Amino acid sequence: MSSAPPAAAAVAAGPARRRRRSWRVRTRRAAAPYLLLAPALFTIAAVLAYPLYFLGVLSFQRYGLPELIAHNGTWIGLDNFSRIFHDDEFWRVLVRTIVFTAGAVGFTMLFGTLIALLLARLGGFMRMLLTTGLVLVWAMPVVVAVNIWVWMFDFEFGVFNWALTELGVGDYVNHDWFENSRTGLLIIMGVVVWGAIPFVAITIYAGLTQVPRELVEAASIDGSGPFRIFKDITFPLLKPIFVILASLSIIWDFQVFNQVWIMRGNNPSSDYYLMSVYAFVESFRLSEYGFGAAIALVMVAIMLCVTFVYIRQMVRIGEVR
Amino acid sequence: MSSQVPAAPVPVAPVVRARRRVRPRHVVRRVGVNLLALLVFAVMVFPVFWMVSTAFKPPADILTFTPKLIPSSATLANFEDAIHRPYFWDVAKNSLIVVAAVTAASLVLAFLAALALAKFRFYGRRAFIVLIIAVQMVPLNALIIPLYILLSRAHQTDKLTGVIVTYLTFVLPFCVWTLRGFLLGVPRELEEAAMVDGSTRFGAFVRILLPLVAPGLVATSIFAFIQVWNEFIIAYIVLSSPEKQTLTVWLAQFTSLRGTQWGPLMAGATLTAIPVVLFFLAIHRRIAFGLTAGAVRG
User: Fold this and answer.
1) For chain A, what percent of residues have pLDDT higher than 70?
2) How far is B136 from chain A (nearest CA, A)?
3) Residue A294: Cβ within 10 Å count
4) Does the CB of A242 have a partner CB in chain B at under 8 Å?
């Protein structure tokens, strides 16, 4: 957009014959980006925009098994939404999901930052060792990670109960962490945070390496402690990265599904429902696709607010050019 | 630790050397920091270690109340069990087909779009970029319901084609975004120089741009590979017959009402994770540093 005017001016200044020819060249050049974009744009519209629109349509319909077979929903207006907002289950799930997300994002950012600061302090060999470990964790497929954690927290032969008992924390022989959904969700939060830490830590560390050394040294000569330096220098400089990571984490953790689903053996009880699990169960277990779609739409709406913050930050740091 | 490293043969002014002399407090701090790093490493890596360790254990080492860190006698029996399970080869083949198809399709489409975004100025470019970012934030879990119904209308449930098309929803926008980043990194002057030297636009593209952006193409396709390989929920809901599923869904079969067979499960999990780990180690640097490249401005 911004480079067009000088080219146009140059053409206008030239003789008439040249103007005509370059007008044709220019049209061709102007069409090129749109032609290049068209296939991707078309695909995105087909596989993303249309389903999104259809999600909206579904949320205003009664769409159960009969409708699924007949390929046609029945329009019921706002009934699904009024049912949601009068549904105690929905509010319980919403609060649970918010608490879960806050906890998961909080711990992820906290440990991620601490590990990044640790990385910055390490010598070459130890830093490489820890980074390799982090990448190894980062690379674990979620399904694999969850299965490992289920095994570690197995009530009978799990290594965690054994370790707690050996360390003298208490008697955890045959302790079932999933009997109570609070501790169960804590374990699920554990696997989410464990899997998310590497990305956050490595990204913040990458940012730390760009903080001018002189600033930190000057502050340290002036007698600032490490906490003060982080608060007054490092954090303000890296704030864009923190905002981006936090909003990405919120978006990812708010829609946690696989971890709950697999950890509870593909059949979580209702006190384990997080938002996306709830929408999924309503749709695919109870065949209430319309109602499930309405829940999902509420989720999309909530996520939209976070996305807004994220995009604004991307625009600010000049990613959108 | 630094105290053990012999001083480098660099001419250093005496004053500086005096300041560099290692004080006991610094040694304590260094050791403390390194111990902490070791502890963090151990805690983070332990689950992965535990998976591999369990995968090589004989049954007696697994079902015991005092777990053994290292198998008493390493065995491949769990791996043999896992790959001889019904449908293992079908499922592995399916995973590969899906990954190859999605990666190839999205790479071609994304490369063209990224080319437009990075190399042309045109009306609506900014809007498209914002759209690409925003679209990546749409929760996939919310889209499963409409996607499933649309697939069932098109009679594409329980077919790999249905899954392949669906996976484009999250792979394509991501690929456009990363490839655009890589293309922006290629200086415009190089292409222009080639064209001044008499090369056509297409020639400049093939001889200059393509080789320079090849590492980006590799990194992006690996990342697409990883995302598709790991996907669970869509495959779980769309593919119902056991011989049509993908590896991540197949892993569920080690758990039955009678309990879980941990050894074979961990062996299967290890097999599922290996390709991802290998690829990840190859590209992680690009991904992490890409996000922060423009974030800190002096």
Assistant:
1) 92
2) 9
3) 29
4) no
- Residue B142, number of CB atoms within 10 A of its CB: 27
User: pLDDT band for position B285 (50/70/90)?
Assistant: low
Cβ contacts of residue B20 below 8 Å, gap of 6+? B12
Q: What is the pLDDT of residues B207-254, one digit of tens each?
A: 878 888 888 888 888 888 988 999 999 999 999 888 899 999 998 888
Interface with A, mutate which of B40, B99, B137, B145 (most A CBs under 10 A): B145
Report the residue of chain A nearest B125, measured CA to CA. Answer: A1
Nearest to B141 by CA among A267, A295, A199: A295
Residue A241: other Cβ atoms inside 10 A: 24
C-alpha A101: how far from its chain's center? 10
- Work out the pLDDT band at B14, boundaries 50, 70, 90: very low
User: What are the start-end ranges of the H helices in chain B?
Assistant: 14-20, 24-55, 59-62, 77-83, 88-119, 125-137, 140-153, 160-184, 188-196, 201-204, 210-230, 233-238, 247-250, 262-292
- In a mutational test of the B interface, the residue from A27, A50, A93, A151 whose CB has the highest number of chain B CBs within 10 Å is A151
> Would you state the structure tokens that stand for residue B188, as one six-digit string?
């415009």
Q: How many Cα neighbours within 13 Å face the side chain of B41?
A: 18
- Dihedral of CA B238/B241/B244/B249: which sign? positive
- 3-state helix/strand/coil string of A198-257: HHHHHHHHHHHCCCCHHHHHHHHHCCCCHHHHHHHHHHHHHHHHHHHHHHHHHHHHHCCC
Whether B110 contacts chain A with CB within 8 A: yes
| Window from A145-154, A187-196, A273-282, B274-283 with minimum mean pLDDT | B274-283
Output the six-digit token pair for A308.
């807004």
Question: Looking at residue B21, what is its pLDDT?
Answer: 57
- Check if the beta carbon of residue A144 is closer than 8 Å to that of residue B272: yes
User: What part of A 84-113 touches B (C-beta under 8 Å)?
Assistant: none
Cα–Cα distance, B111 to A263 (Å, whole number) = 38
User: Whats the size of chain A, residue-wise?
Assistant: 321
Spatial separation of the C-alpha atoms in residues A140 and B242, rounded to whole Å: 24
pLDDT of residue A12: 43
Q: Is the pLDDT of residue B23 over 70?
A: no
Q: Mind telling me how many Å the CA of A233 is from chain B's nearest CA?
A: 12
Distance of residue B191 Cα from the nearest chain A Cα, in angstroms? 16
| Chain A from 131 to 160: CB within 8 A of any B CB | 132-145, 147-152, 154, 156-157, 159
